[in-house]
What does this fold into?
Amino acid sequence: MEESLTQLRSEASTKDLRTAIETLIQILRNIHQNSTNDKFRKIRTTNAKIVEKFWRFEGARTFLLITGWRCEGEHIVLDSDVDVVDALNFLVENRFVRPSEQEWVAETKQIIVNPEKERDLQLRAEAMKKKQREMEELMKDMDERKEIAANIIAEHRNDMEKRKIHRRVGQTETPGSPSTALVVSKPRPVASPATHRLASLPPAQASSSYHI
It folds into this structure.
């Protein structure tokens, strides 16, 4: 069995080797689990799927023949008295196939593509871009607000400084200036008693009295 498996490894790619081993395991497991059903002990070798999965490889054909299968025309047949436990256990123990570098790089990328997952990733990327744009707009708005606030504060400080300067100038003005000069009025002449009497007389009497 070991030699036939080695031959199969040399013929098939890692992907085809894995397919062939898993198919043979399934065939032998069906026989083991349905030991009284002869339909699982007969395989048509002209079946396209059988040919594609394992029969096209000489190593796989050799493995079946040395484990008790025999050819009958288009079929291979396993007699009912042949036990498949040893062959089944051997394949299960050697079922692990390490993928080749080519399979990892080229084929795997195409096999694991999940449209729903790709769509989910795309939606997440779009949401992240939208959130980033909103954050940039918010930061821009905050910067503008800070700039406006800074200008208002600067204008307020300038206004306060101007008021302080005006107050200091008003306190240091010299006496005699229009804001602090004293207004001195001339004394009005005081009329004598005679002048009061003359003012109260008629004009004719006042004139005659003046010449006495």
Summary: The chain is about 65% helix and 5% strand.
